[in-house]
């Protein structure tokens, strides 16, 4: 039984249920008519009852109840200590108190839902920003930390650590390439597409945009940035910057107007522009670039994808080695290493690499030998030759050599 010491006391407890009043009724009826005395009046709701002259229960009249219920609602209180013995099921205060309780519950539920929704949105935004910025942050770290392949390499200063590279915005690259227009396309391959671009200051650039389906993923992108950024040689392509905004993987290089060597070697009309003097110059330039990678750079670098399409030509037809996505840094005094992942281009890959996964500086020497044969013969590695067209390029040339080129 809920009683109160002062008439109409407000409280923050739960609302009073009808079952309580039924118990009070039974209690009062057990005394009979003579045992229950009204202190003030016999209105619909009386002010106070006394039971057996000793037990008393306080009540408010209807107007007081209504006024105090209104006050309770206004103050957000959850209950009101008062009883009504008549007409339990329509008890005004109990209903009002329950409404206040329900309103408060709804408000709490609404606040919880709103806070949860806002929290989820904020968390999703943080995750998106983290993932989006994480790519750029990872690449930036790669620029300052080339793989520790040498003993004591941790103490060596890595030249070309990427501090001069520019992190281009996506909008800048989009404007430079005229929204990656087909008219700006220089070439296309399994890795993606290369576009010609022009920055606001008039500098021409080559934009390598990796496709989503490219085999060259983030690891290869970091590798290419880290390696190309530190190469300082006239026969290696110069990296200007990168862009990783909007989940893009874009590299920005110096622009070389004559594209790649394969555009000349395997085109019957353009190949006549490669006289023996130019071919010898290209061979010498690639040799110097390869010698730099293996002997004269701070680390020995194995390219692992040396081929005609990765030899770019400047306006004077001087060659520059490009595309270091598959390259690996090698210890100066190590002879070979193993890998379970076979990479490279068919026809340029040495047999021991295919069979056992062994690679070394000899890998690039083998690829260079194939490239040398292509520069001299103008033939592709992907075709078959001979009277029955059943020999690859190496078999064909070796056979011609044995027969005295007859």
TrEMBL record:
Matching PROSITE patterns: GH18_2, PROTEIN_KINASE_ATP, PROTEIN_KINASE_DOM, PROTEIN_KINASE_ST
Pfam families, A to Z: Pkinase
Transmembrane region(s): 109-128
SUPFAM superfamilies for this protein: Protein kinase-like (PK-like) (SSF56112)
Source superkingdom: Eukaryota
InterPro entries: Chitinase_insertion_sf, Glyco_hydro18_cat, Kinase-like_dom_sf, Prot_kinase_dom, Protein_kinase_ATP_BS, Ser/Thr_kinase_AS
Gene3D superfamilies: 3.10.50.10, Glycosidases, Phosphorylase Kinase, domain 1, Transferase(Phosphotransferase) domain 1
Amino acids binding ATP: 208
GO cellular component terms attached to this protein's record: plasma membrane
All residue ranges annotated as the GH18 domain in the record: 1-104
Record keywords: ATP-binding, Kinase, Membrane, Nucleotide-binding, Serine/threonine-protein kinase, Transferase, Transmembrane, Transmembrane helix
GO annotation terms (biological process): carbohydrate metabolic process
GO molecular function: ATP binding; protein serine/threonine kinase activity
Location of the Protein kinase domain: 180-406
Similarity-based family: Belongs to the protein kinase superfamily.
PANTHER family reported in the protein's UniProt record: CYSTEINE-RICH RLK (RECEPTOR-LIKE KINASE) PROTEIN (PTHR27002:SF559), RECEPTOR-LIKE SERINE/THREONINE-PROTEIN KINASE SD1-8 (PTHR27002)
Name of protein: Uncharacterized protein
């Amino acid at each position: 039984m809920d009683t109160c010491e002062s008439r109409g006391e407000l409280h923050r407890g739960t609302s009073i249920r009808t079952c309580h009043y039924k118990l009070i009724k039974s209690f009062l009826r057990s005394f009979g008519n003579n045992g229950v005395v009204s202190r003030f009046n016999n209105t619909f709701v009386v002010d106070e009852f006394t039971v057996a002259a000793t037990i008393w229960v306080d009540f408010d009249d209807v107007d007081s109840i209504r006024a105090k219920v209104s006050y309770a609602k206004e103050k957000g209180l959850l209950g009101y200590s008062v009883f009504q013995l008549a007409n339990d099921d329509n008890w005004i205060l109990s209903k009002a108190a329950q409404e206040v309780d329900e309103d408060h519950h709804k408000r709490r539920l609404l606040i919880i839902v709103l806070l949860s929704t806002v929290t989820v949105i904020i968390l999703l935004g943080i995750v998106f920003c983290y993932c989006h910025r994480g790519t750029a942050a990872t690449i930036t770290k790669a620029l300052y930390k080339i793989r520790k392949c040498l003993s004591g390499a941790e103490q060596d200063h890595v030249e070309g650590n990427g501090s001069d590279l520019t992190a281009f915005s996506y909008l800048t690259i989009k404007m430079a390439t005229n929204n990656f227009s087909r008219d700006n396309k220089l070439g296309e391959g399994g890795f993606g597409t290369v576009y010609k671009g022009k920055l606001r200051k008039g500098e021409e650039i080559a934009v390598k945009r990796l496709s989503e389906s490219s085999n060259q993923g983030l690891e290869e992108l970091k590798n290419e940035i880290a390696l190309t950024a530190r190469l300082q040689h006239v026969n290696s392509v110069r990296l200007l910057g990168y862009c990783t905004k909007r989940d893009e993987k874009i590299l920005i290089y110096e622009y070389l107007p004559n594209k790649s060597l394969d555009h000349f070697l395997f085109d019957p009309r353009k190949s006549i522009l490669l006289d023996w003097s130019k071919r010898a110059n290209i061979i010498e330039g690639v040799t110097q670039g390869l010698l730099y990678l293996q002997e004269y750079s701070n680390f020995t670098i194995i390219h692992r994808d040396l081929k005609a399409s990765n030899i770019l030509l400047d306006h004077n037809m001087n060659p520059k080695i490009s595309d270091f996505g598959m390259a690996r840094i090698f210890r100066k005094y190590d002879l070979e290493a193993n890998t379970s992942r076979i990479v490279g281009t068919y026809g340029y890959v040495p047999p021991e690499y295919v069979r056992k996964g062994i690679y070394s500086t000899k890998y690039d020497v083998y690829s260079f030998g194939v490239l040398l044969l292509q520069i001299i013969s103008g033939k592709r590695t992907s075709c078959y030759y001979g009277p029955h067209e059943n020999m690859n390029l190496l078999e064909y040339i070796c056979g011609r050599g044995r027969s005295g080129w007859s």
